[in-house]
Design goal:
This protein is an all-alpha fold and 64 residues long. The protein contains 2 helices and no strands. The chain is rod-shaped.
């Protein structure tokens, strides 16, 4: 069984353990944290772009 599936199975069974005491959870978190940080940064950038588009459209609407 893959480590990911093993972890999923443990979580499904309710064996939730503190990451402080579980090296497997620590490794899993270290693996995925950079991806999560990049995803958050991309979403923040997208939100700023959308806010700028809304602002520009409002200015155009108000100009008419």
């Amino acid at each position: 069984m893959s480590r990911d599936r093993e972890l999923e199975k443990k979580l499904e069974q309710g064996h939730r353990r503190s990451a402080d005491n579980d090296p497997m959870l620590q490794a899993y978190a270290r693996l995925w944290l950079p991806y999560a940080e990049r995803a958050v940064a991309a979403l923040e950038s997208q939100a700023k772009s959308q806010a700028n588009i809304v602002r520009i459209l409002a200015e155009i609407r108000d100009y008419r």
